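Regression test attached.
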Amino acid sequence: NAGVTQTPKFQVLKTGQSMTLQCAQDMNHNSMYWYRQDPGMGLRLIYYSASEGTTDKGEVPNGYNVSRLNKREFSLRLESAAPSQTSVYFCASTPGRAPGYTFGSGTRLTVV
Amino acid sequence: AQTVTQSQPEMSVQEAETVTLSCTYDTSESDYYLFWYKQPPSRQMILVIRQEAYKQQNATENRFSVNFQKAAKSFSLKISDSQLGDAAMYFCAYRSAAQFYFGTGTSLTVIP
C-alpha cells in the first residue's frame, strides 16, 4: 500500500549512542516532517523539509539532525542520544499546502 | 504564534450516544485548515475530518461532524452513535502555510 514507511518501529539506545530513523514515502509528496510525541504534550515538530533540497528547524530541533536524501526519503539522526529523547517519533508527508498529513506508523525510542 | 488548545484531557461516552470534543485555536491568518486526527492504541495517526477556513459549511464524514465557528476560533468534533472502535486519542490540528500545530489531545473512552 502507498504511504509513509518508518523504520525501525522500536529501538532502545544507551545514552551517548547515535542512530538514524529512516522515513520514505511513495506518494510523490513534496513536503516531509519529523515529529515527536510525548504524553500530555501532543506532537511537536522537530524538523521539516518543504521540498527536496531544503530543511528547516521546527519547535524542538536541539539534539537532532535531518537529511532530505531525495524526494522520497527524509531521515532523522540522533548524534548522541539522551534520556530526554525518549519518545515516539512520527514521520509525515504532504503534497503541498492543502491536504492533511499522511503519517508513518511511528518509532518508539527509549534511551536508557 | 499559532496555538491549539484542547481543554478536555479525557472524555467518556456510552456506546451509541453522542459526544463532542472541544478545540480552540489562536491565529491571525484568514486562510488555514483545521483537522481532527484519531490515534488508536495501534499508534497510527488517522485523519478523521478536515475543514477549510474559507468554507462556511461544516464538514461531515459519516458519524463525524464538526462545528466550526471561525469568529470564535472554535472547532469541535461531534461523534454520533459512538462505537467501541471510536475509543482513541483525538488530536485537533491547525495548518498554516508551512506547518501544522497540534493540540495536546483528548483521550476518548467508549463505555459498552
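Expected vs. actual: identical. The mean pLDDT of chain A is 92.
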